[in-house]
Amino acid sequence: MKVRVLGCSGAIAAGCKTTSFLLDDDLLVDAGTGVGDLTLDELARINHILITHSHLDHIVSIPLLVDSVMNRRTRPIVVHALPETLEALRAHILNWVIWPDFTQLPSRERPVLKMEPLAAGQVLDLDGKRIEVLPAEHTVPAVGYAVEGRTGWWAYTGDTGPNPALWPLLARRRVAMLVIETAFGDDERELAAASKHLSPSTLAQELRSLARDVPVFVTHAKPGGMGAIVTQVHALDSGHRIEHLEAGQVFVI
């Protein structure tokens, strides 16, 4: 399985794109601004979108993507998310005010977009990809995802604060790569706690439950903040190999 990092920042600036990953060529995990780097042909090959939660930086490209490829699709793109996330999309984005409701276009009988609810703990099979829905702890209902590849599982926490329910689930899997959010430095640890994000000190506490041989990649830092966060993470001597993601990276799992 090929994992392409389209975006991995917590906000936008030159060179910073919000969260989205393209798995092989047909599955998006989150739909941040990085989706805009795909060609029209690449956009048209996407069949499924897994969304972690309803915050704008993770959903912003859904309506624009669907609009771009509507005339190129013979089957609907399916958005998979928690029921609360899907309802937020319907109520606040695809509401005919902010954007048309593409679950009814070009017709109610043959829409270009479908929505499928999921729940933490569920295991999905999407066009041959096995996916486990992971729990997350955020300010809105949220999940993460683990996707099985040839060498193990690619695990992505989504936006989350301390998440004790996650680690027993990962312990049962051969995790080939963990992508875990660390949105703020320890100088803003109170803000991180209030917004249910991780900072380096809480990241180190979380990683105590992770096997030492798992490659760890931190994501979701605000523009300009990743360098300081990585420095702080390494200074904590967690015992893990920790790197930061960059848009444009490609991994084979």
Q: Report the sheet with the most strands, covering strand number, pairing sense and barrel closure.
A: 7 strands, mixed
Which CATH top level class fits? Answer: Alpha Beta
Count the helices. How many?
A: 8
- How many E strands? 14
Strand order of the largest sheet: 6-5-4-3-2-1-14
Write the CATH homologous superfamily.
Ribonuclease Z/Hydroxyacylglutathione hydrolase-like
CATH architecture: 4-Layer Sandwich
Q: Quick one: overall form? A: globular
**Uncertain stretches of 5 or more adjacent residues:** none
Average pLDDT rating: 95
How much beta, percentage-wise? 25-35%
Organism: Caldimonas thermodepolymerans
Protein name: 3',5'-cyclic-nucleotide phosphodiesterase
GO biological process, one term: cAMP catabolic process
InterPro entries: Metallo-B-lactamas (IPR001279), Pdiesterase2 (IPR000396), RibonucZ/Hydroxyglut_hydro (IPR036866)
Describe the protein:
By secondary structure, the chain is an alpha/beta fold. The protein has a single domain, classed as Metallo-beta-lactamase, Chain A. 23% of the residues lie in helices and 25% in strands. It has eight helices and 14 strands. The chain has helices at residues 40-44, 56-59, 62-69, 83-92, 166-171, 189-194, 200-207, 226-235, and strands at residues 2-7, 20-23, 27-29, 48-50, 77-81, 113-117, 123-126, 129-135, 143-148, 153-156, 175-181, 216-219, 242-244, 250-252. The strands form two sheets. The chain has a seven-stranded mixed sheet. A seven-stranded mixed sheet has the order 7-8-9-10-11-12-13. Strand 3 (27-29), helix 1 and strand 4 form a beta-alpha-beta unit. Helix 7 packs across helix 8. It is globular. The termini are close together. The model has no long low-confidence stretch (mean pLDDT 95).
